[in-house]
Amino acid sequence: MFFELFPFSLSEQIALFFLTLSFLMHVGLGFVVWRYALPSIAKRFFLLLVFVETFQIAINFLSTLRWINDEIFLWGGRVAMVSAITFVYLLFLFVYTFLQKKPKLKLRRGRIYLLHFFAIVLIGVSMTPFLFSGVRHFDYGRVPQFSLGVIPHAVFTIGLTVATFFLIFWRYFHAGESDKRKWRYIVIGLVLTFSLLFSLIYLSLIVFHDLRFAPYSGILTLPFVIFASYAILKHHFLDIRIFGTELFAFLIIGISMVQLAFARTVTELLFSAILLILLVLFAILLIRSMTREIKHRADEIALEELQKLDAAKSEFITIASHQLRTPLSGLKGYISMAQEESYGKLPAAMQRILGNMMQATERLISLADSFLNVSRMQSGKIELNRQETDVKTFLDALVHEMRPAAEKRGLNLMWKMPSENLPHVSIDQEKIRTVLTGVLDNAIRYTEKGGVAIQIKEQKTHLRQGYGGQSRGVLISVADTGKGLTPEERKDVFTSFKRGKTAQALWTEGVGLSLYIAKQLVEAHNGRIWAESPGPGQGTTFFVELPIA
After folding, report:
1. pTM for this model (two decimals)
2. How far apart are CA 168 and CA 163, in angstroms?
3. Inter-CA distances, 311 with 151, 301, 372, 377, 494, Å
4. Which of 25, 394, 414, 500 is 20 to 30 A from 453, comparing alpha carbons?
5. CB atoms within 10 A of CB 111
6. pLDDT digit string (tens) for 165-224?
């Protein structure tokens, strides 16, 4: 039906078929590059190249139809020559910017402006009779009548093409091995494309005055578009299954469009139109489904790799901490014996040095223990030795242990044992001691003036033990007058290896593990730990809630 409206000959119908396939392949490859290639200037120039080439495909075909009059034919030829200038110009800019973050071979700004100027002038000249002055008719067809403007046009296009190849080879010999492979694809595509264009279009036009191959120019430029697309996309995380699916979808849609164009009856036209719409919808759904599936699978693989790395990291920390702790314990023993003068009388200055060494060694042992605890927690190997504990007496003893550290910093440690009896709690005393020591130590360490207040009380709670529900619990609060916490710091305060900016300024030796370990240990007791702070400079209160046994 389409060909009844437009009188295409058999050769023109064949040319239209190849034109449609070529057009769809250019558009399809351009779409894939636009969607998947990493952002770059070269990518933009390539997409402009593809756009110009698809435009030139249509112009070359329409301008050679036998039923087009001479005036339209002449204007079509001029537009095609403008497209040729634009093509080689964009090709040069694409090659100049391809794979270049900071080009070693730079063009001076004046030369760039000169190149722009010549391109604009020649584009303007190409649309005048100075390039094509008329139309010449032969038995086998017609061709444009050349004028003097062909000479600067040929000099510009050939010269810029030679410069493009020179630039390619210069970049190739100065590129790394991975980039050289990409340049090879560019060279192969360009050599094939220019060889075909020169022999079948330009040589045929100039020597034999024959334009029979002009409608097929879109097919001739496909080698460059295909190889350049592959070079741009190579190693840029493009999944070949999506790439193949999208190209297959474009091909099927293209065939359906050709079938629509060749429809001879209204019924065939309606059937082909409906089929085309269904194929487009099916292609969209297929590509989306495959994209989601591949992304989901990639996420699963990434998660598996992360889990393996996490397990390897935990194993490494465990082994390293064990190997580190053993010699440190031995060193601590020797220092202790030296302090007790087991090896002889020592001067007072040496005793002070040994005291500093003992403190440093104890810090390293504490750090190794922290790493071991983190490793055990992350691998789910926390074992609890629960005992019925009078938490009031337990906390009183711990506060007395921490009081010298507070007095050394000039802080008031406020604690009054409640007069009323509190229910016992079932806890691992060593682990809860670690929790409360870490909380108190942080409060003392990050408070410069004022004091730290400790309280304990029984209250209603929503905590539940693993073997049954509980409606009451014991709440321990530690309030300081320190620097306080920002909302962001409150979110991260119990995260491993996370420390606030204020904490880093006050104590540079911390690693951000004590509160993370405290949270894990409290939760292992089916308890809860959290922090509250009105804001920076207004202090912080830590709460530890444990279920009643």
Report:
1. 0.48
2. 9
3. 71, 15, 14, 12, 21
4. 500
5. 10
6. 888 888 888 777 777 877 888 888 888 888 887 777 777 766 666 667 776 776 777 788
